# Entry
Amino acid sequence: MILPRTGVAVDVHAFGPEGTPLWLAGLEWPGETGLAGHSDGDVVAHAAADALFSAAGTGDLGSVFGVDRPDMAGASGVRVLGEAAALVRAAGFEIGNVAVQLVGQRPRFAPRRAEAEAVLSAAAGAPVTVSATTSDHLGFPGREEGLAAVATALVVARG
Ligand SMILES: Nc1ccn([C@@H]2O[C@H](COP(=O)(O)O)[C@@H](O)[C@H]2O)c(=O)n1
Ligand SMILES: C[C@@]1(CO)OP(=O)(O)OP(=O)(O)OC[C@H]1O
# Structure
């Protein structure tokens, strides 16, 4: 019997200097300060990609993409998630779904949830849902030093 496999991941990025564009959940957020990173720092897309690797048992974000690949400098979250999904499929898995939760005081995510889910689902080729929560002003997200995202993914080996 082929059983589904779950994966889990957390990603964290600090905010960059004021004026850095924010890319989050595959969307640009005008007027919001962006995240620092080798790529565009999209914690939601990164957590989704890493959860897929976790489910498939194909390593993790750092070991697959690393920060020493010049072609990944500034890479979009949509690209990271799309490439992760392709690698997981190439390893012999179908993707069931990915669920992500953003942790941060801002941006206010809910008004753009449907838009973000559409963009990320298209990138992954499977349903990606995104929820958001504040940390009630506690910890680094609460102090608005950065954002975190936690994700789970479900994959099934092709029979
Ligand atoms: N960045 C965020 C954080 C939260 N939300 C929405 O607000 C709801 C309540 O959040 P609490 O942390 O106060 O429980 C949450 O369920 C989200 O719908 C948001 O849109 N953006
Ligand atoms: C995505 C990568 C590669 O550009 O860079 P970062 O933007 O630093 O993101 P992180 O979540 O630390 O994952 C590691 C890297 O693979």
